[in-house]
Amino acid sequence: MTVVPDSNLVRQIVLRTFSELNGSPVDVRSLREMILIDDGKYRGRSYRFSDLMAMWLVKFGVIQVYDEEGRMLRTINLFEEQDSLKRAA
């Protein structure tokens, strides 16, 4: 069974990561978000801002962040991220 985090939480993680990599805050209105469907099944979401792109791969519970040349900059384990957010609350 796959436990899927809330899409709002994932969006906030992406915004925070893009802001860190961009060096300045990224506003949610500047974020382009697409739902990923393959073979009729929900697979995740992609997010774009400027020259950054992130993919949320639901099956694996990760967000992968890429630069404009397709180099992976960061992988975020959502299960670990959720745990740390719960502890901080």
Look at the helices and sheets and give the structural class.
Answer: alpha+beta
Whole-Å distance between the termini? Answer: 26 Å
Low-confidence stretches: none
Largest sheet descriptor: 5 strands, antiparallel
Record field, number of beta strands: 5
Strand order of the largest sheet: 1-2-3-4-5
Shape: globular
Taken in chain order, the helices and strands follow as HEEEEEH
Mean pLDDT figure: 89
Radius of gyration: 13 Å
Query: How many structural domains does the protein architecture include?
Result: 1
Descriptive account of the structure:
The chain is α+β, with helices and mostly antiparallel strands. It has one domain. Helices cover 30% and strands 37% of the residues. The chain is built from 2 helices and 5 strands; from the N terminus they run H-E-E-E-E-E-H. It has helices at 7-22, 78-88; strands at 32-38, 41-49, 52-57, 62-66, 72-77. A 5-stranded antiparallel β-sheet has the order 1-2-3-4-5. Strand 1 and strand 2 (41-49) form a beta hairpin. The termini are far apart. The relative contact order is 0.19. The model has no long low-confidence stretch (mean pLDDT 89).
